């Protein structure tokens, strides 16, 4: 897995440790979810990425409906 080194919205200073959610094991692709689980297998990284986007969409919709307080 590759470490992600970029700030998220509203972050400054030192980058916290993060890694990419996609990984390959035995020629099958998976993505990590919060809580230590994973989803897969997928035939390709593109398929896993698309499934990850589909998995995250309800969370993004919820953030838009109920923004975090400042």
Could you please describe the fold and organization of this structure?
By secondary structure, the chain is of the alpha+beta class. The protein has a domain at about 20-65. The protein contains one helix and three strands, in the order βββα. The protein has one helix at about 45-65, and strands spanning about 20-25, 30, 40. It has a three-stranded antiparallel beta sheet, with helices on one face. β1 (about 20-25) and β2 (about 30) form a beta hairpin. The longest helix has 21 residues, at about 45-65. It is extended. The protein starts with about 20 loop residues before the first strand and ends in a 5-residue tail after the last helix.
Helix and strand topology:
Elements: E1 22-25, E2 28-32, E3 38-42, H1 45-65
**Morphology:** extended
Mean of residue pLDDT?
80
For the terminal residues, how far apart are their CA atoms?
Answer: 32 Å
Q: What's the number of helices?
A: 1
Order of helices and strands: EEEH
**Uncertain runs with pLDDT below 50, 5 residues or more?**
none
Q: Main β-sheet, in a few words?
A: 3 strands, antiparallel
- Overall number of strands: 3
What is this entry, summarized?
This protein is of the alpha+beta class. It has one helix and three strands. It has a domain at 22-65.
């Amino acid at each position: 897995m590759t470490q992600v080194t970029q700030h998220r919205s509203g972050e400054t200073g030192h980058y916290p440790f993060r890694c990419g959610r996609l990984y390959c094991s035995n020629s099958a692709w998976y993505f990590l979810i919060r809580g230590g689980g994973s989803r897969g297998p997928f035939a390709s990284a593109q398929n896993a990425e698309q499934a990850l986007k589909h998995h995250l969409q309800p969370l993004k919709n919820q953030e838009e409906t109920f923004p975090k307080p400042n």
